[in-house]
Automatic annotation (TrEMBL), chain A:
Keywords: Cell inner membrane, Cell membrane, Membrane, Phosphate transport, Transmembrane, Transmembrane helix, Transport. GO terms for cellular component: plasma membrane. Belongs to the binding-protein-dependent transport system permease family. CysTW subfamily. This is Phosphate transport system permease protein. Part of the binding-protein-dependent transport system for phosphate; probably responsible for the translocation of the substrate across the membrane. NCBIfam families: phosphate_pstC (TIGR02138). The keyword Translocase does not apply. It is a multi-pass membrane protein. PANTHER family: PHOSPHATE TRANSPORT SYSTEM PERMEASE (PTHR42727:SF1), PHOSPHATE TRANSPORT SYSTEM PERMEASE PROTEIN (PTHR42727).
From TrEMBL, chain B:
NCBIfam families: 3a0107s02c. InterPro entries: DUF3333 (IPR024573), MetI-like (IPR000515), MetI-like_sf (IPR035906), Phosphate_PstA (IPR005672). This is Phosphate transport system permease protein PstA. It comes from the Bacteria. It is a multi-pass membrane protein. GO terms for cellular component: plasma membrane. GO terms for molecular function: phosphate transmembrane transporter activity. The chain crosses the membrane at residues 29-51, 202-223, 243-263, 269-293, 314-336, 389-408. Residues 198-405 form the ABC transmembrane type-1 domain. It comes from Qipengyuania soli. Keywords: Cell membrane, Membrane, Transmembrane, Transmembrane helix, Transport. The gene is pstA.
Length: 461, 416
């Protein structure tokens, strides 16, 4: 049963409850002596509708998660499933094929073993479909009736509805915490599994990275999982090359825009800079791989570098730096604008030129904000994926030469998880360990940056 | 006034002043240069993509007149209305008919370079209008990728000779390819289109909007209007601010580990993609929503409370409608970011080769940025132009969304 149908069913039942309850409340209103009831009819209606929709939605969410498992179980219990190969990739492929034919997603089976399972699958799907719909109807009816029977002329429907609304509001704001917990739990869980196979010391301090997804998972060679080259590549591309581009350009743009540019010019330039931040990273990646990287290689050849790599750290870093310019510039813009006008005027009155005022007074005063902006930009750069996936390489390389191929943490996460490796293999699990390190580092940078901004922002007020 | 003051403007002073003024000028020029550099890079990017991409909206075609009266293809309108009409036509030998007329018109050597799936274009035309089977119709059929690249000056010498010959005869030309917007992924760059990816993007965005908008707005209302000042509220705020800055690939890992664990059969479906992107977009909506709600003046709340509205009525009848334009602006910006996002969708398997447009939220799909990524990996030169063309479409969508956000902001911006 598709989630869309369940959702529409829930909304339809809710609407029915809403209409019934409102009609009921209007009867109360007509029958009452003074034409008044404790709550408006629409609150009665919302009370019943919420009591129908919320349980049905809760059930539908649980059911869509459970039903596929139940269907597979009942198919496996069928005698036709007895000659299936033992657990593994092939068994799963046959099951998927039969399921696709049964749901109509595929026209016919290729595998003969799957053909025998189509009918059991179709039966099981129909059975669980109807069970799901029936259960939905029963739940909606029971909850709706219970709520409907509570309606009375003096029933405080509004208070009850508002209480439910408050619970919904609280629930919505808890989603953020649940997401954070979800991220931490999924990363930690898989990372712990990974560290059960590879020692954390090898991972964090080893200098050779070369996981082999096809190697035997039971005899893991810990020396192939040294992540130092990845950390170095990430730092070199994201925190060094990209920042060499982004910090001066971003800072000077912000200074020109706040101190020199005429308001009319500023009105056009600022959105144009913001477009740089809005271009999708996959487009930057394509640009870097197609235009910048070959240009850099040609330039290196012309300068006499022998055999430069076509996938260089420099290409990825330069393009990433351009992408980061607007972040640095808008943070610097804000903190320069926050410096009191009196400080600027004082410096100018002493006879300093505008540039001397900016360099000796405004920038030092705005420094905490600028530094925080740079930290946020670094956190953004080291978490950036598509540019490096497309323009950097997958070869781990511990070198300081920007013309050489280098790989980063995010490239390896993508490489490890989009291969054909199984989920129990340390090569696949290493992606989660890398993700955990990345999450922790960016979290730390963001946290410190926010603290710095909060702490120093009030210095002049 | 008997004492004489030494003149302040000595030559030394003037020289120093000149130096300082020069430094001032240099500093200003550097600032302007920084901005010009950024804008130049942006323009260079856009111009490169446009120049590359214009070719992607075209394809190399050969004109083939087909006399259906001779061909003996039978197609009654009822059979053509069936979903398997293409198979019916294939069984009647339409592919061979097309090949026959092609070699009659162009010669055997050139006919071999008609794209292997070119007859499908003819089949689509017949299904569209079965009455053409009584006439002679000229079709512009796509060539093979080899001939197409020879036309643009690459490829083997024989191919280039053939291309030059056909061009000179006026039989080979580059035409605007309407089908690029209505076809889906294929292995031949001459046959690809972006409709499948575009539809996948729309379905994914629909799920993202349906989840992120209500949750984001309700959370913003709670935090701004009702939340008591305590450690729980602080925790919620800190986690929202942190989520807004978490790298997107981490959300992909979450989707992979949690959503695909709960729903293993919906791999690479827009449903899972939308849920993952919704978690990423929600913090953006909450943050912009809180700013919009904060901007509604307290007097409106006080006025409503004073005439007996309950706190919930105040928020839903007065504050929310006034804050809505601001919330919508933030939502559109968040959605634009989600539309361009690639990395988390790679994690949950939306990188599969999908040759048919998805027909629902649970069928396998790909999205526009991922399609761009997949094509960028293709070795065939024809894909370079196609990739740039897809990038133009994506950038146009983003431009429209951002333009809408700016329009909304200007139209509804209120000073209280």
């Amino acid at each position: 049963m598709s989630p869309t149908i369940l959702l529409l069913l829930a909304l339809g039942l809710g609407l029915a409850g809403w209409l019934a309850a409102r009609a009921r409340a209007w009867t109360f209103k007509r029958q009452s002596t003074d034409g008044r009831i404790a709550s408006l009819p629409s609150y009665h209606a919302w009370y019943v509708a919420l009591w129908v929709v919320l349980p049905v939605l809760a059930f539908a969410a649980t059911w869509s998660a459970l039903a596929p498992g139940l269907v597979t179980q009942s198919v496996l219990a069928d005698p036709a499933a007895a000659q299936l190969p033992a657990f593994g990739f092939q068994r799963q492929a046959i099951l998927n094929e039969a399921r696709n034919v049964a749901t109509g997603a595929a026209p016919a089976v290729f595998n003969q073993q799957a053909a025998a399972l189509v009918e059991p699958f179709r039966d099981a799907l129909t059975f669980y479909n109807w069970t799901g719909i029936a259960a939905t109807l029963v739940i909606a009816f029971l909850a709706g009736t219970w709520a409907f029977l509570r309606l009375k002329p003096d029933f405080a429907a509004r208070t009850k509805v508002e209480r439910i609304v408050m619970v919904i509001l609280l629930g919505a704001s808890l989603v953020a915490i649940l997401t954070t917990i979800g991220i931490l739990a999924s990363l930690v869980f898989e990372t712990v599994r990974f560290f059960g196979m590879v020692s954390p010391i090898d991972f964090l301090f080893g200098t050779h990275w070369g996981p082999d997804p096809m190697a035997n998972a039971s005899a893991v060679d810990g020396s192939r999982y040294g992540a130092i080259p990845l950390f170095w590549g990430t730092l070199f591309i994201g925190a060094i090359i990209a920042m060499i581009v982004a910090i001066p350009l971003g800072l000077m743009s912000a200074i020109y825009l706040t101190q020199y540019a005429a308001p009319g010019l500023r009105k056009w330039i600022k959105p144009a800079l913001e477009i740089l931040a809005g271009v999708p990273t996959v487009v930057y990646g394509y640009f870097a791989a197609l235009t910048i990287a070959p240009a850099i290689r040609d330039l290196a050849l012309a300068l006499g570098v022998s055999n430069p790599s076509s996938e260089s750290a420099l290409a990825a870093g330069l393009v990433m730096g351009v992408m980061i310019i607007p972040f640095v510039s808008s943070m610097a813009d804000d903190s320069i604008a926050a410096v009191p006008q009196a400080m600027r005027d004082g410096s100018l009155a002493m006879g300093a030129t505008t540039s001397e005022t900016i360099r000796r007074v405004l920038v030092p005063a705005a420094l905490p904000g600028i530094v925080a902006g740079i930290m946020l930009a670094i956190s953004r750069a080291i978490g950036e994926t598509m540019i490096v996936v497309m323009a950097a390489s997958t070869a781990a390389n511990l070198t300081a030469n920007p013309l050489e191929a280098m790989t980063t943490v995010t490239v390896q996460i993508v490489a490890m998880l989009t291969g054909e490796g199984s989920f129990d293999h340390p090569a696949t699990l290493s992606a989660f360990a890398l993700g955990f390190v990345l999450f922790m580092v960016t979290l730390g940078l963001n946290f410190v940056a926010l603290r710095v901004v909060k702490r120093f922002r009030e210095a002049y007020e | 006034m008997s004492e004489r003051v030494a003149p302040t403007r000595t030559a030394e002073f003037e020289a120093r002043l000149q130096k300082r003024y020069a430094a001032e000028k240099r500093f200003k020029a550097v600032g302007l240069g920084a901005i010009l550099f950024s804008i130049t890079v942006l323009l260079f990017l856009l111009v490169t993509m446009t120049l590359n991409g214009i070719g992607g909206f075209q394809r190399v075609e050969m004109d083939v007149p087909i006399n259906f009266a001779e061909a003996g293809i039978a197609a009654d309108p009822t059979a053509m209305a069936q979903p398997d009409a293409v198979n019916t036509l294939q069984a009647q030998g339409l592919a061979e008919v097309v090949a026959f007329f092609a070699s009659k018109e162009l010669g055997d050597e050139a006919a071999a370079e008609i794209g292997p799936d070119a007859w499908r274009d003819v089949a689509d035309a017949i299904i569209e209008d079965p009455s053409i089977l009584r006439e002679e119709v000229t079709f512009s059929l796509p060539t093979s990728a080899k001939l197409a690249s020879a036309y643009s000056g690459d490829g083997s010498p024989e191919m280039r000779k053939l291309a030059t010959k056909l061009t000179a005869e006026g039989k080979l030309e580059k035409n605007f390819d309407v089908g690029f917007l209505s076809r889906s992924d294929a292995t031949n760059p001459q046959q690809v289109g972006i409709w499948g990816a575009l539809k996948g993007s729309m379905l994914t965005m629909a799920i993202t909007l349906m989840l992120a908008f209500p949750i984001g707005v309700l959370a913003a209302l709670y935090l701004e209007e009702y939340a008591p000042k305590n450690r729980w509220t602080d925790l919620i705020e800190v986690s929202i601010n942190n989520l807004a800055a978490v790298p997107s690939i981490i959300f992909g890992l979450l989707g992979l580990a949690v959503f695909l664990w709960i729903f293993p059969s919906y791999r690479s479906a827009p449903l899972i993609g939308g849920m993952t992107l919704a978690l990423m977009t929600m913090p953006v909506i909450v943050i912009s929503g809180r700013n919009a709600i904060k901007a509604v003046p307290p007097s409106i709340r006080d006025g409503a409370l004073a005439i007996g509205a309950s706190p919930v009525q105040v928020v839903f009848h007065h504050v929310l409608p006034l804050a809505l334009p601001g919330i919508l602006t933030g939502t559109i910006i968040g959605m634009a970011r989600a539309l361009g996002e690639t990395a988390p969708l790679l994690m949950i398997g939306m990188r599969a080769f999908v040759a048919t447009p998805p027909d629902g939220f649970t069928s396998p799909a790909t999205v526009l940025p991922v399609q761009i990524f997949l094509w960028s990996d293709e070795i065939d030169r024809g894909f370079v132009e196609r990739t740039s063309a897809a990038i133009i479409v994506l950038l146009l969508f983003l431009l429209v969304m951002n333009g809408l956000a700016i329009y909304l902001r200007n139209k509804f911006e209120k000073k209280w």
